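Give me C-alpha cells for this 188-residue protein.
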Amino acid sequence: GLANYLRNTMCPNIVFVLPSVEISGGVNVVIKHCHILQKAGYDVTVFSMANDEGLIKMAEGSINVLATRNVFLQATIDKAVATLWSTVEYILSYFKIKERYYLVQNFETDFYEFGHPFRIAANQTYTFPVQMKYVTISMWCQDWLNMQFGILAPYAQNGIDLACFPVTSRDYSGKIRILIEGNSLDYY
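Here you go.
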C-alpha cells in the first residue's frame, strides 16, 4: 500500500544521457527539451559521460547533472534517453529503466570518415528497435530511420528559442553570412 501511494504521488523521472554538457547544438536541443519536460511535471536529470557535475542554469530553471562515472544507481528510472550513439550502451546496460529512448538528432554515422570504427558503431545503434523507442527532431531523420532501418520514430519539434533569433528584414547588397552548426574541427 505504501509503495503504491509513493508511486502515485511522485513525479515521473527522466534521465538524458549526454556525452558531455559542453555547449553544442545537440546539447542545446536536449537542454531545451529538459526544460519543457520540467514544466510538464517531470523530475529531470542529466547524466554526463564526461566528468561534468553540478547544475545547468538557464533562464527557464536549472537541471541536475551527474557524471556517469561517479553514479552508483539503485533507483528505478521511468524513462532514459540516449542522445548520441556513444550514450546508447549506457542506457541499455542499466536494467532498472522502464522505458528507453534514443533522441536521434542527425545521421551520426556521417560524423566519421569511411573506415573509422566509430562509423560502424554509430550505425549499429539504429538496430535496437525492440529494446528502445526512437524519437527525432528532424523530418529528414524520421524518413531515413524508416527507410533504412524500418524504425517509425515520432517527430519531436526542435525546441528553438525564437526570442534569440528575431525576424529582421534582409539587405542583400553586402556580405551574406551563413551559419554552419557544428564543431569547425570536425572533418565534415
